[in-house]
Prior knowledge:
The chain is built from 6 helices and 5 strands; from the N terminus they run βαβαβαββααα. The chain is of the alpha/beta class.
Amino acid sequence: MQQINTVIVVNKTDYGISEEEQEYIDGYRSIGYEVLETSVKVKKGIEAVKELTEGKISAFVGNSGVGKSSLLNAIDRNINQKVNETSTYSLKGKHTTKQARLFGLLNGGYILDTPGIREFGMWNMDFEELKNFFPEIYRLSPKCRYRNCLHTDEPGCAVIEAAENGEIPLFRYENYLKIFETLYGNRHLYFTKDK
Ligand SMILES: Nc1nc2c(ncn2[C@@H]2O[C@H](COP(=O)(O)OP(=O)(O)O)[C@@H](O)[C@H]2O)c(=O)[nH]1
Ligand SMILES: [Mg+2]
Ligand SMILES: [Zn+2]
């Protein structure tokens, strides 16, 4: 498993943060993820992103239109990435960033600006492995009745219990199930890995 530090950046906070969005932010923080609130428009949190990327190799990953390229432009005056013109009738926006591209920063870091999540190839994973990528699920696994529990419908599953009693955010468990189903459905598309 790669040891990649994940930080969640919530951009466009100049629009405000809804109650629902706040629940996601709190949920991710309760799991242990660092969540940064930024706004490229009113220059909020830009310094924090700059500091995080200093001397490191980072990647911006997220849906088209969330402001990845704008953020990149904001943290480094030498960079001038094209920014999407999103329109209200097209949630997807125009795909201005067509390919992932690595930028060298003045702070000694590098940032990979990516066009979006799907292009990242994160779906090429064994469905049995997925549980290890959810830290809160991974931590609870030893408490499950079965050692090889996949936390979908097994009896004595500590993860299902924790999701039901609010010990871990329910939306995360639902995300786990959704991705699990996708990976399970695609299991024949991939070559089996050498064990
Ligand atoms: N209101 C607001 N708009 C922003 C912010 N950051 C980016 N945008 C706008 O969002 C649109 C998409 O930005 P872009 O950087 O191309 O997104 P990307 O597809 O993730 O690279 C552009 O019209 C930006 O001007 C922000 O913090 N606040
Ligand atoms: Mg972009
Ligand atoms: Zn379980």
